[in-house]
Amino acid sequence: MIKKLDNSHDNIIGYAAIGSITKDDYHVMVPEVEALAKEYGTIHMLIDMSQFKWEKVSAWGADLHFGREFRKNIEKLAIVGDKRWEKWLAKLASPFYAHESKFFHTDEMDAAWQWLDDESNN
Fold it and tell me: How far apart are the C-alpha atoms of 67 and 9, rounded to whole Å?
């Protein structure tokens, strides 16, 4: 399941990836991201992976399509988690999902939101 986070505001949007992600989960996220991209041009995004288990194989195509469609619009991507591979994912995300990406440990959630909100990092 993908759940929109309450701290989302203006051109900053956050989602929690909970459990196993399916292709249908992208039907929730894509219209919201698309609307923000149309309104603001660029957006800043947070993905909380602290409760993430796996992405179903059937969702991989939707995931790749999301990256192709919105990588020009996602200026900053904060990935929040507690696993080593999530840190590597943040490093790999820059060319495929966002202009700039950064990993934050789960206990740094406030710092992640602040980084997305900090205009001096643009």
Answer: 21
Query: What is the chain's length?
Result: 122
- Can you tell me the distance from the alpha carbon of 32 to that of 38, in angstroms, rounded to the nearest whole number? 10
Is pLDDT larger for residue 109 or for residue 52?
Answer: 109
Q: Considering the entire predicted model, what is its pTM?
A: 0.85
Confidence of residue 121 (pLDDT cuts 50, 70, 90): very low
Domain spans, the chain: 2-117
Q: Are 101 and 77 in contact (CB under 8 A)?
A: yes
- CA–centroid distance for 23 within its chain: 16
Q: Which fold has domain 2-117?
A: Rossmann fold (3.40.50)
**For residue 106, pLDDT beyond 90:** yes
